[in-house]
From TrEMBL, chain A:
It comes from Brevundimonas guildfordensis. Keywords: Membrane, Transmembrane, Transmembrane helix. The lineage of its organism: Bacteria, Pseudomonadati, Pseudomonadota, Alphaproteobacteria, Caulobacterales. The keyword Transmembrane applies. This is Uncharacterized protein. The chain crosses the membrane at residues 90-109, 121-143, 206-226, 246-267, 279-297, 346-367.
Amino acid sequence: MDIIERYLEAVAAQLPTDDREDIVAELRDLILSRVEAREEELGRALTDEEKEAILHEIGHPLIVAARYRKGPDSLIGPELFPYWLFGAKAGLTLIAAVQALGLLIHVLGAPADVGRAIGQAFHGFFSGALTLLGALTLAGAVMEHFNIKPTWLTKWRVRDLSAFGLADPAKWGASLAGSEKAKAEWLPKGARVWGVAVNDKPGVEALVSLIVAGVFVMWWIGVISFPGLGAVHLRGGAVGMEPAPVWAALYGPILALAVGGMAVDAITLIRGREGRLGWFLKIPLAGAALWVLWRLFEAGWWFTLTQGDATARVEGGAAQISLQALRAINEAGRDLGGTALTLGTVLTWVFAIMAISFAVNIVGYMWRIATAKAC
Amino acid sequence: MDQALFETMRLELRRGTLVLAVLACLRTERYGYTLRQALAADGLEMEESTLYPLLRRLEGQGLLTSEWREEEKRKKRFYVLSPGGEAMLAALTEEWRGINASLERIL
């Protein structure tokens, strides 16, 4: 078959049957007209390569055929896309919040089952998120295809818009990332936490961080203990949880890291603002935290679960950062091995997310230092 | 200057004017290939993959009429402005002149 006919056949396959013949006839005329014009210019017949060059100029069959398609060009058009995006962000935040709440209730109600509960929460979030995005896309595509414009798209009132500001997860994200403007927008004005004004952001953050780190350090050095932590009951009796040797090796660095963090928080609290000094000090701290996470990843073995004579290692690594590994959580049993697998995968994800967060923080602090006015 | 950004903005600027140019060119009956040549001769290069679907869309909107006729030993589809197309061209030309005059003052 001639190269031009092969091209036209590829285009025709993508066209609606009603118009196919007509469009292909017109395209054939266009291509032959261009070939003839070129042949006249050169004074000879074109080679297949030269004909192909003309077809390349006309475009890929999928693109050429798409231009003839009736109806919308995109699944979700530019008018509808902001609503789709808002729905996706708000919905994902809501699903995450519901799963987190469910997890909290589950852990408080049945602390023995924490590993499985975390696995279920992850699974619930991912399946809920996929369903939400699929449903939103389907609804949007139907509205786009049939040009449906509900009244909330066209007849909105300013007084109904406040929920949009509150429900914008981007603002929460910006706030968590330390954007002062975002915090000022969504934090309730005049609120106070333990005597410190909430709008005094660095102060509140430093205070909360100091307390949390203080509790952690006291627990880490054995001054306080949390009864029930590590007391897991599975089918077949109580389970013991022994830390892997890597924790002993990292005991000193983790303690130093926590104390260093407390020192920076204390400085921020005393000065009343983070400023360049705070950001400057937080860069090596975040770098050290990354190093600790790297060592944990390198070790790959974090705990050992024991039940009677049976033991199972809680292990993780790069292989666990996959959807397949998350699915495996769901299929893992409630026995010792299944619990170890679940804990290993969850910890891997937690460590990976922490590592990304520290890396982003380092870049963020550097950027702030570079762009901040002298203070 | 960011060349990629310039190219995007240039295409956006041209997009609306191409319809006007095509309608104006089809006051005289032409088929796709000669229409493209006529536009190019006046400095408006247009890709076939844009021009041909545009012609069909304008015909679907009732602004053009078309018929298949044999010329140079091959059947070709000839397009020309419909009465509705002529009215639209007049209205769009007036609009274009208004925009152009405003821009001239601003620029």
